Amino acid sequence: MRIAVLVSGSGTILQAMIKADLPIAVVVADRKCKALDIASDAGIQNIIVERDDFSANFDRFHYTDILVDALRPFQVDIVAMSGFATVLAKPIFDLFPGRVLNTHPALLPAFKGWHAVEDAIQAGVQVTGCTVHIATEQTDAGPILAQEAVDILEGDTVETLHERIKQVERRLYPDTVKKFLTKLEELEEKHKVPKEQEPIKKRALLSVYDKTGIEQFARGLETIGWELIASGGTSSALDGAGISHIQVETVSQTPEMLDGRLKTLHPAIHGGILADRSKPSHMSDLDKYNITPIDLVICNLYPFGASPCIENIDIGGPTMLRAGAKNYEYVSVVVDPADYDTVLAELQANGETSLQTRLMLAYKTFSHTAAYDETIANWFGDKKDSTDQLSDKPADQLLRLPNTLHLKLDKTKDLRYGENPHLQGALYHPRGRKSIWDSAIQHSGLELSYLNILDADAAWRLVYQVGNLSMLHEPGNTLEGNEAAACVIVKHANPCGVSLMSDAVEAYKRAFESDPVSAFGGIVALNTTFTAALAKEMLSYPKADVVIAPSYESGAIGILAAKRKNTRIIQAVPPVASFMVTGGQATSALAADAAAGLTLRSLEDAYLVQETDRIITKPKDWQVVTRRIPTKKQYNDLEMAWLVCAFVTSNAIVLVKDSMTIGIGAGQPNRVDSARIAIEKAQQHSRRTERDTDKEAGEDAVGASDAFFPFRDGLDELAAAGVTAIVQPGGSIRDQELIAAADEHGIAMVFSNERHFKH
User: Fold this and answer.
1) One of 326, 406, 543, 758 is an active-site residue; which one?
2) At 183, which helix (H) or strand (E)?
3) Does the active-site annotation cover 263?
4) This model's pTM is above 0.85
5) Burial, 144: exposed, middle or buried (Cβ in 10 Å; 0-12, 13-18, 19+)?
6) Pick from 313, 296, 433, 312: which is nearest to 352 by CA?
7) Model confidence over 657-688: pLDDT tens digits?
8) Catalytic residue (choose from 282, 492, 543, 758)
9) Is 326 an active-site residue?
């Protein structure tokens, strides 16, 4: 076994590795450093693959290609990063799958990145440590091999804490690398063919629907002496390319039948795939029945997702894939044409794939077959539901939530951490259905965090609903319909400022004025082009953590980024609901994705699932229950207040005046406290913006409550503050008492007849 060590600095860990007598074949640095002198003194060959570009545009893929080419002549088995300062790209992980090791000064998954020690101190934790792990393309995210804790002492600085962590690393890293090498040697010994045994010709089975790259891959296998077996259309493709192969029927001695439904389901095929080569009884069975082992299965499946029908339900394909993946210790299974080059390169170089590669391929295989089966299950579920729809069941008894829920999620990116530093976090998207965050462009600022995305998503979805209020499409509307600018500011998942104005600058100013204290460090979302004028205006206001808009005027990003270097400036496509409710019935969107239009929340050992909340009733559907009827202006403000209410944590009270929020009360255990908070914020708003300080806080404002008032006390508070109209769901046993109280105060009240709790 031979090791390449990658270094950039003083080489103290390298020195510990040399002292541990590890088989280091070469030391590689990305710059001149003391570690190279340590390697030279120890008689170890060393080279520099210099990094001469330290700008934001550094091409790490190109650099990694050069580094990989430099490593090839040394024929090393593993790569150990030892304080290496350059983040590497895919080529090195392809050449050394599962064999690139790293050490990190924290207890991963907490405190990823370059400032792990500083982050631990700033977070106020009492314990950190070091982690030895297998490195992957995702920074500090690979499988953990070893960890050891280090206490953070009172008065610790970054320097003192880092030195104590290094003391542990100098012992833990060499020990872990040595154990890793021993394990690799044991595995290689297990799979070694005895010298006296004549090598058996390797055999590959090819049966693919998607024939992208299959001819080149098959020709490469043929060139290195592999025997090829092919079925059906794959055999025809190889015939057309002049590639020698055996047909499946020749191996199984059984022709294709049932219109191609039965091709590969035969012991001569599956025995060759499933045999455990370490068990004499398995090998004896192969000899007894004259079955040749199959070492490589290349298969992808009928396109059921693109064209769902009975004939596109693949049977033989998933069976071969699962069989090969189960026997990964001896069989490589390739389901993705993107892996052809990696597998062929290993076979050309070593005559076989590495165990780590086979593990990776098995993982991809079972992920693929699981998603395939889930897609089919959802299709059958939708057919069953459609049959239910044709029955004479009442509408409220029809199936609106599936009996089984299949989640197919692919990781979009790892995040620095979750809600708190000790929690690992990542962003996922539904397989086959990209989210708005997959295509979002970040133009400037720090990396997006878990909470940034959570809050920005809430702001982004609300701002487009505000920008599409029904009042915008009424005759005579002065905000000119879709040209109206909506602005939403969110802090900790709750809107703290919302406005709808005729231009973006005014919309931002009014939204910020709603609650300047909460708006500091919040998320600013706009539904219209972010202009240079708005960028200049924002510089006179406290910073925002995130700005998100559908487009940016020329120069606007530069103006804002020059003074707000940390602000994350995001460009995103408008959110589109994947689930709509019409007449109270779910659409067939569930057929495409069982989780579309559903909200999931995890419990300790279960999940709560519900349809995603949508506002169904409009002002024209509301019921006026008081003697006083809302004016047209009040109806417009009530509609905005009602919409914002649905996005505010319950119990929610929202006050709106002139198409902007002036007070929001959220998340209180009783509604009257929420009303008082909203009124207090409205009072602060009045003192900031009104010349007439004798006015009541909510004078000429309207209010919305996400659920009914259980008692009149909350309504009395709003009326006393000057609120002139209220929208609430109604439905309380005290509705008549509330209606009488509203008439007593001379205010208008309407019932929406739908509740919008948000917990």
Assistant:
1) 326
2) helix 158-191
3) no
4) no
5) middle
6) 296
7) 999 999 999 989 888 999 899 999 988 888 87
8) 492
9) yes
